[in-house]
């Protein structure tokens, strides 16, 4: 038995929002679970600043923005959080920013870090002017995350110290029943810890996928520009020349960021006309951007309003009880056949709850009568269609998820210009609807969509979904559909896109985009059945989407070495009909411990959190009052860590030279 008075040591690889959230929960739970006389040393290992980490670091273009309103971003638990540890409310990004304009609480809680002004005057100016419904720059989010990190430090008892090592963890070694040694780049002596948490966040790939390697080789042969999937803030976009024709494959948030950097980032600007429309004023340095994707349309605009009625009581039709009923059977579950109808009914419930409560004049019966009938009917039943048609006269007020999913299915155009006009009208209508509170039912559906997203990990972890359902359903169609509806850009970005289209800087390609190469011309080719017979030849190609997780090709040296050594496993979902390799790190659903194939199960001293793991839908920060899955996981893991460390302290875990005490 170890000396219970010796210091305990925890090493956390990664110091971004995920690690910050874990640290906040450790601070919240020490009063109950950590003896004040016992020392705990926490080592954070990350070359990027603690709090923001790599993705949200301050050193990125001020043109890049969040796709969430300031009031919809928090790092703190609240009254909705179903957790075992104490709820410690804290300010949302909007509430924190208000303090710089004298609009926030007069006296922050004692455990909070002092509210000191950011050193960057542009960031400070934005904070002072920031409204709750504004979409902040990423640099403002960086300042908020930096403060949350310092607030977590301030909440720790004196016996708990935190040391930041501004370097990269290259490997972790050690027996399952003994100390873990975390090796650091540029350091001869490793850190020794009782437990290790891997919280590296979103990761790129060191080796591109086969398709990307082939396209890169084509580009090299013909002296063309090719950019494989990359994080927008890190991408080198100096290659495309002014006026050069560039194809962008992808129409989501990465496309938006890349377009901003290739237009405004090259000196262009916008002028607001008397009718409110935007005109793009080119600098002359922009390339011509041709964009297409599977759907062929941009992600839906984020709503620019709040609920007009009461918040829908969620979950309603797709919560623990519904999932329990699904799991009570003995046959494999198919996502589209068995699960999606319940998911769709939940999303519909959020939509109609808001419509009936906020806009009753557009319905023909009371909410109670509609709700009673709605609860009894299956989503795809004729009775449900009849109920909605009789209760909601205007088709524009009804929720048609299939039509939302693929708006260009079966639609073709004789010439590219005709399609440009069509898609501009589609985008304009989408922005207008998402900025008009008369259509606040869309926000009700959005909140239900978030609820559904948070419930799915338990179902996936059960192992009852077919392998094809996980591969093509969860990681394929559902992830794309959720992002398409819920993770779109602010409305002003789509108005800018319309201006770029009218200026001829952006050209729309269509749905089911196909990329090829023409060796004779040395060009990339792009075609779409939306405009049959039309081919675009371009001398540059940009993959406008984020890198997909792939353990065998990850840029992270620690994960790469563990994977090669067989000490961690890629998630593999298999059944007689299909095998799905997700590229995600397998962790135990109950406690997030790394599954070690050499041990035949979870590693007792290694835990992994966040994006690279198969704990899907566990985001690092969240909307307030949504019982966020990430906060629930952080609390459970923090409590388990404190209990385990309290039982098993090591005497040889001391800070090494070259670290920075915080």
UniProtKB/TrEMBL annotation:
UniProt-listed Pfam families: NAD_binding_9
Database matches in InterPro entries: HpyO/CreE_NAD-binding (IPR038732), L-asp_N-monooxygenase_NS-form (IPR052189)
Every FAD-dependent urate hydroxylase HpyO/Asp monooxygenase CreE-like FAD/NAD(P)-binding domain range: 11-202
Organism superkingdom: Bacteria
Name under which the protein is recorded: FAD-dependent urate hydroxylase HpyO/Asp monooxygenase CreE-like FAD/NAD(P)-binding domain-containing protein
């Amino acid at each position: 038995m170890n000396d219970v008075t010796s210091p305990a040591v925890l090493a956390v690889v990664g110091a971004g929002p995920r690690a910050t959230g874990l640290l906040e929960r450790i601070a919240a739970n020490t009063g109950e679970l950590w003896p004040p006389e016992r020392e705990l040393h926490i080592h954070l290992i990350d070359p990027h600043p603690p709090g923001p980490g790599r993705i949200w670091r301050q050193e990125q273009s001020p043109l890049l923005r969040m796709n969430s309103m300031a009031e919809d971003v928090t790092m703190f638990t609240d009254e909705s959080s179903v957790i075992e540890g104490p709820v410690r409310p804290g300010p949302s990004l909007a509430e924190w920013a208000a303090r710089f304009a004298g609009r926030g609480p007069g006296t922050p809680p004692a455990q909070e870090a002092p509210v000191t002004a950011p050193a960057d005057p542009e960031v400070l100016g934005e904070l002072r002017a920031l409204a709750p419904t504004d979409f902040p720059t990423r640099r403002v989010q960086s300042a908020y995350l930096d403060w949350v990190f310092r607030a977590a430090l301030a909440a720790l008892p004196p016996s708990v110290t935190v040391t930041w090592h501004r370097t990269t963890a290259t490997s972790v070694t050690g027996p399952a029943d003994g100390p873990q040694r975390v090796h650091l780049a540029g350091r001869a002596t490793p850190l020794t810890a009782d437990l290790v948490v891997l919280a590296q966040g979103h990761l790129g790939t060191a080796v591109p996928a086969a398709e990307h390697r082939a396209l890169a080789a084509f580009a090299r042969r013909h002296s063309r520009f090719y950019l494989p999937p990359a994080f927008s803030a890190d991408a080198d976009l100096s290659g495309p020349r002014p006026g050069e024709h560039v194809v962008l494959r992808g129409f989501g948030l990465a496309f938006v960021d890349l377009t901003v950097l290739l237009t405004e980032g090259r000196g262009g600007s916008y002028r607001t006309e008397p009718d409110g429309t935007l005109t793009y004023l080119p600098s002359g340095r922009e390339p011509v951007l041709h964009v297409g994707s599977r759907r062929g349309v941009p992600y839906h605009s984020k709503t620019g309003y709040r609920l007009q009625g009461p918040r829908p009581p969620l979950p309603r039709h797709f919560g623990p009880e519904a999932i329990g009923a699904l799991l009570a059977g003995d046959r494999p579950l198919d996502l589209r056949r068995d699960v999606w109808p319940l998911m769709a009914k939940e999303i519909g419930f959020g939509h109609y709850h808001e419509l009936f409560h906020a806009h009753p004049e557009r319905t023909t019966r009371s909410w109670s009568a509609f709700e009673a009938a709605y609860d009894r009917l299956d989503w795809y039943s004729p009775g449900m269609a009849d109920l909605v048609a009789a209760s909601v006269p205007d088709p524009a007020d009804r929720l048609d998820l299939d039509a939302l999913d693929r708006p260009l299915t079966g639609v073709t155009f004789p010439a590219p210009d005709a399609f440009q006009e069509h898609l501009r009208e589609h985008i304009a209508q989408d922005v207008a609807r998402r900025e008009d509170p008369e259509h606040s039912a869309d926000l009700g559906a959005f909140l239900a969509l978030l609820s559904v997203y948070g419930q799915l990990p338990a179902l996936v972890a059960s192992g009852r979904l077919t392998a094809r359902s996980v591969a093509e359903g969860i990681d394929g169609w559902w992830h794309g559909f959720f992002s398409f509806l819920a993770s779109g850009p602010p409305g002003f970005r789509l108005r800018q896109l319309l201006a770029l289209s009218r200026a001829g800087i952006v050209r729309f390609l269509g749905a089911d985009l196909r990329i090829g190469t023409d060796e004779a011309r040395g060009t990339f080719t792009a075609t779409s059945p939306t405009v049959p017979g039309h081919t675009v030849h371009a001398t540059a190609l940009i993959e406008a989407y984020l890198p997909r997780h792939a353990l065998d090709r990850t840029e992270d040296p620690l994960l790469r070495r563990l994977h090669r050594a067989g000490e961690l496993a890629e998630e593999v979902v298999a059944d007689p009909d299909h095998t799905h390799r997700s590229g995600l790190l397998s962790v135990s659903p109950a406690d997030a411990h790394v599954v070690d194939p050499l041990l035949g199960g979870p590693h007792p001293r290694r835990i992994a959190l966040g994006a690279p793991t198969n704990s899907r839908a566990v985001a690092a920060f969240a909307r307030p009052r949504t019982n966020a899955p990430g906060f629930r996981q952080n609390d459970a893991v923090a409590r388990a860590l404190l209990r385990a460390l309290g039982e098993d302290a090591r005497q040889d875990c001391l800070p090494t030279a070259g670290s920075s005490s915080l």
